[in-house]
Design goal:
Largest sheet: 5 strands, parallel
Structural class: alpha/beta
Strand content: 15-25%
Shape: elongated
Distance between the termini: 35 Å
Helix content: 40-55%
Protein backbone atom coordinates (compact mmCIF):
# COMPACT_ATOMS: atom_id res chain seq x y z
CA UNK A 1 0.00 0.00 0.00
CA UNK A 2 1.34 3.44 -0.90
CA UNK A 3 0.70 6.64 1.01
CA UNK A 4 -1.56 7.74 -1.84
CA UNK A 5 -3.96 4.80 -1.43
CA UNK A 6 -7.47 6.25 -1.64
CA UNK A 7 -10.52 4.65 -0.07
CA UNK A 8 -14.24 5.06 -0.63
CA UNK A 9 -16.46 4.12 2.33
CA UNK A 10 -20.17 3.80 1.49
CA UNK A 11 -22.29 3.33 4.62
CA UNK A 12 -25.62 4.95 5.53
CA UNK A 13 -25.17 4.47 9.29
CA UNK A 14 -23.27 7.62 10.23
CA UNK A 15 -21.71 6.24 13.42
CA UNK A 16 -20.43 3.17 11.57
CA UNK A 17 -19.19 5.22 8.61
CA UNK A 18 -17.31 7.66 10.86
CA UNK A 19 -15.71 4.82 12.85
CA UNK A 20 -14.59 2.93 9.74
CA UNK A 21 -13.28 6.09 8.06
CA UNK A 22 -11.37 7.15 11.18
CA UNK A 23 -9.65 3.76 11.48
CA UNK A 24 -8.66 3.80 7.81
CA UNK A 25 -7.30 7.33 8.06
CA UNK A 26 -5.27 6.25 11.09
CA UNK A 27 -3.72 3.58 8.86
CA UNK A 28 -2.64 6.20 6.29
CA UNK A 29 -5.47 5.98 3.77
CA UNK A 30 -7.08 9.00 2.12
CA UNK A 31 -10.77 8.38 2.78
CA UNK A 32 -13.85 9.69 1.02
CA UNK A 33 -17.24 8.99 2.58
CA UNK A 34 -20.66 8.40 0.98
CA UNK A 35 -24.02 7.70 2.59
CA UNK A 36 -25.73 6.07 -0.40
CA UNK A 37 -25.19 4.88 -3.98
CA UNK A 38 -25.87 8.30 -5.49
CA UNK A 39 -23.06 9.80 -3.40
CA UNK A 40 -20.86 6.84 -4.33
CA UNK A 41 -21.48 7.58 -8.02
CA UNK A 42 -20.43 11.19 -7.51
CA UNK A 43 -17.30 10.20 -5.59
CA UNK A 44 -16.23 7.64 -8.20
CA UNK A 45 -16.74 10.21 -10.96
CA UNK A 46 -14.50 12.72 -9.17
CA UNK A 47 -11.42 10.58 -8.57
CA UNK A 48 -9.78 7.18 -8.88
CA UNK A 49 -9.89 4.92 -5.82
CA UNK A 50 -7.67 2.03 -4.75
CA UNK A 51 -10.35 0.19 -2.77
CA UNK A 52 -13.99 0.58 -1.74
CA UNK A 53 -15.98 -0.56 1.30
CA UNK A 54 -19.74 -0.90 0.71
CA UNK A 55 -22.46 -1.53 3.23
CA UNK A 56 -24.67 -3.95 1.33
CA UNK A 57 -28.15 -2.56 1.97
CA UNK A 58 -28.28 1.19 1.30
CA UNK A 59 -31.26 3.57 1.16
CA UNK A 60 -31.23 3.69 -2.64
CA UNK A 61 -30.41 0.06 -3.43
CA UNK A 62 -28.41 -3.12 -2.94
CA UNK A 63 -24.67 -2.46 -3.23
CA UNK A 64 -24.13 -5.98 -4.60
CA UNK A 65 -26.28 -5.18 -7.65
CA UNK A 66 -24.63 -1.78 -7.98
CA UNK A 67 -21.10 -3.24 -7.96
CA UNK A 68 -22.18 -5.95 -10.40
CA UNK A 69 -23.30 -3.32 -12.91
CA UNK A 70 -20.06 -1.42 -12.54
CA UNK A 71 -18.04 -4.60 -13.04
CA UNK A 72 -19.84 -5.15 -16.35
CA UNK A 73 -18.60 -1.69 -17.39
CA UNK A 74 -15.01 -2.66 -16.60
CA UNK A 75 -14.67 -1.13 -13.13
CA UNK A 76 -11.87 -3.06 -11.41
CA UNK A 77 -11.48 -1.41 -7.98
CA UNK A 78 -11.41 -4.08 -5.20
CA UNK A 79 -14.55 -4.10 -3.05
CA UNK A 80 -15.22 -5.24 0.50
CA UNK A 81 -18.89 -5.72 1.37
CA UNK A 82 -20.12 -5.10 4.92
CA UNK A 83 -23.47 -6.71 5.75
CA UNK A 84 -25.67 -8.19 8.44
CA UNK A 85 -26.76 -10.90 5.98
CA UNK A 86 -24.67 -13.95 6.83
CA UNK A 87 -26.36 -16.73 4.82
CA UNK A 88 -24.09 -18.67 2.47
CA UNK A 89 -26.27 -17.64 -0.48
CA UNK A 90 -25.74 -13.97 0.38
CA UNK A 91 -21.97 -14.40 0.52
CA UNK A 92 -21.97 -16.26 -2.79
CA UNK A 93 -24.05 -13.48 -4.37
CA UNK A 94 -21.53 -10.92 -3.17
CA UNK A 95 -18.64 -12.72 -4.83
CA UNK A 96 -20.59 -13.51 -7.99
CA UNK A 97 -21.35 -9.81 -8.47
CA UNK A 98 -17.73 -8.77 -8.25
CA UNK A 99 -17.03 -8.47 -4.54
CA UNK A 100 -13.48 -9.29 -3.43
CA UNK A 101 -14.24 -9.83 0.27
CA UNK A 102 -17.31 -10.07 2.49
CA UNK A 103 -17.43 -9.18 6.20
CA UNK A 104 -20.49 -9.89 8.36
CA UNK A 105 -21.68 -7.41 10.99
CA UNK A 106 -20.93 -7.02 13.81
CA UNK A 107 -17.22 -7.01 13.12
CA UNK A 108 -14.04 -5.71 14.71
CA UNK A 109 -12.89 -2.57 12.91
CA UNK A 110 -9.20 -3.64 13.04
CA UNK A 111 -10.16 -6.83 11.17
CA UNK A 112 -11.91 -4.76 8.52
CA UNK A 113 -8.80 -2.59 8.18
CA UNK A 114 -6.56 -5.65 7.82
CA UNK A 115 -8.78 -6.96 5.02
CA UNK A 116 -8.67 -3.61 3.20
CA UNK A 117 -4.88 -3.45 3.48
CA UNK A 118 -4.66 -6.99 2.07
CA UNK A 119 -6.88 -6.04 -0.89
CA UNK A 120 -4.79 -2.95 -1.65
CA UNK A 121 -1.56 -4.92 -1.35
CA UNK A 122 -2.87 -7.53 -3.78
CA UNK A 123 -3.69 -4.83 -6.33
CA UNK A 124 -0.37 -3.07 -5.73
CA UNK A 125 1.55 -6.24 -6.45
CA UNK A 126 0.03 -6.27 -9.94
CA UNK A 127 1.21 -2.72 -10.62
CA UNK A 128 4.66 -1.67 -11.71
CA UNK A 129 6.52 -0.85 -8.47
CA UNK A 130 8.84 1.65 -10.19
CA UNK A 131 7.92 4.63 -12.40
CA UNK A 132 10.65 6.06 -14.65
CA UNK A 133 11.06 9.02 -16.96
CA UNK A 134 14.48 9.80 -18.42
CA UNK A 135 16.78 10.07 -15.37
CA UNK A 136 13.93 10.32 -12.83
CA UNK A 137 12.93 7.17 -10.92
CA UNK A 138 10.12 6.79 -8.37
CA UNK A 139 10.11 3.55 -6.38
CA UNK A 140 6.59 3.01 -5.01
CA UNK A 141 7.53 0.12 -2.73
CA UNK A 142 10.55 1.76 -1.10
CA UNK A 143 9.01 5.26 -1.34
CA UNK A 144 12.21 6.65 -2.84
CA UNK A 145 12.79 9.23 -5.55
CA UNK A 146 16.05 9.43 -7.48
CA UNK A 147 17.21 11.76 -10.22
CA UNK A 148 20.40 11.10 -12.06
CA UNK A 149 21.03 8.32 -9.54
CA UNK A 150 20.93 10.73 -6.57
CA UNK A 151 18.42 10.03 -3.78
CA UNK A 152 16.09 12.98 -3.15
CA UNK A 153 14.38 13.78 0.14
CA UNK A 154 10.69 14.43 -0.47
CA UNK A 155 7.69 14.77 1.84
CA UNK A 156 4.68 12.44 1.77
CA UNK A 157 2.60 15.01 -0.14
CA UNK A 158 5.41 15.68 -2.63
CA UNK A 159 5.76 11.93 -3.22
CA UNK A 160 1.98 11.56 -3.63
CA UNK A 161 1.75 14.34 -6.22
CA UNK A 162 4.78 13.12 -8.15
CA UNK A 163 3.46 9.54 -8.18
CA UNK A 164 0.05 10.68 -9.43
CA UNK A 165 1.54 12.86 -12.19
CA UNK A 166 4.12 10.28 -13.31
CA UNK A 167 1.37 7.67 -13.67
CA UNK A 168 -0.34 10.04 -16.14
CA UNK A 169 2.47 11.30 -18.40
CA UNK A 170 1.60 14.16 -20.75
CA UNK A 171 -1.92 14.46 -19.28
CA UNK A 172 -3.25 17.73 -17.90
CA UNK A 173 -4.20 17.11 -14.26
CA UNK A 174 -6.32 19.66 -12.39
CA UNK A 175 -5.50 21.00 -8.96
CA UNK A 176 -8.83 19.69 -7.69
CA UNK A 177 -7.96 16.21 -8.99
CA UNK A 178 -4.66 16.29 -7.12
CA UNK A 179 -6.42 17.38 -3.93
CA UNK A 180 -9.04 14.64 -4.37
CA UNK A 181 -6.34 11.99 -4.70
CA UNK A 182 -3.59 13.24 -2.38
CA UNK A 183 -5.50 14.93 0.44
CA UNK A 184 -8.51 14.08 2.56
CA UNK A 185 -11.88 15.60 1.68
CA UNK A 186 -11.53 18.30 4.37
CA UNK A 187 -8.97 20.19 2.24
CA UNK A 188 -10.28 23.34 0.55
CA UNK A 189 -9.98 22.72 -3.23
CA UNK A 190 -9.73 26.48 -3.80
CA UNK A 191 -6.66 26.87 -1.61
CA UNK A 192 -3.14 27.20 -2.99
CA UNK A 193 -1.93 24.10 -1.14
CA UNK A 194 -1.17 22.21 -4.37
CA UNK A 195 0.83 25.09 -5.84
CA UNK A 196 2.94 25.34 -2.68
CA UNK A 197 3.78 21.62 -2.68
CA UNK A 198 4.49 21.56 -6.43
CA UNK A 199 6.81 24.56 -6.07
CA UNK A 200 8.84 22.72 -3.42
CA UNK A 201 8.84 19.54 -5.49
CA UNK A 202 10.08 21.32 -8.61
CA UNK A 203 12.97 22.82 -6.65
CA UNK A 204 14.00 19.36 -5.42
CA UNK A 205 13.74 17.76 -8.88
CA UNK A 206 15.93 20.51 -10.38
CA UNK A 207 16.34 20.94 -14.13
CA UNK A 208 15.41 20.11 -16.78
CA UNK A 209 11.92 20.74 -15.46
CA UNK A 210 9.43 17.87 -15.72
CA UNK A 211 6.33 19.31 -14.01
CA UNK A 212 4.78 22.01 -16.18
CA UNK A 213 1.97 24.43 -15.46
CA UNK A 214 -1.10 24.10 -17.68
CA UNK A 215 -2.60 27.56 -17.54
CA UNK A 216 -6.12 27.62 -16.18
CA UNK A 217 -6.06 23.87 -15.48
CA UNK A 218 -3.26 22.54 -13.30
CA UNK A 219 -0.13 20.57 -14.13
CA UNK A 220 1.35 18.17 -16.65
CA UNK A 221 4.27 15.75 -16.21
CA UNK A 222 6.65 15.15 -19.10
CA UNK A 223 8.99 16.83 -21.53
CA UNK A 224 8.80 20.56 -22.14
CA UNK A 225 6.72 21.69 -25.11
CA UNK A 226 7.35 24.61 -27.39
CA UNK A 227 5.85 27.73 -25.85
CA UNK A 228 5.19 26.12 -22.44
Amino acid sequence: MTATARMLVVEDNEDMRVAVAAELRAQGFHVEEAADLAEADAALARADHDCAVFDRMLPDGDAVTYVGRRRQDGWAVPVLFLTARDAVADRVAGFEHGGDDYLVKPFAVPEMTARVVALCRRVGERRSPVLRHDDLELDCARRQVRRGGALLTVSDKEFAILEYLMARPEQAVTRSELIDHCWDTSTDPMSNVVDVVVRRLRAKLRTPELIHTVRGVGYRFGAARSGS
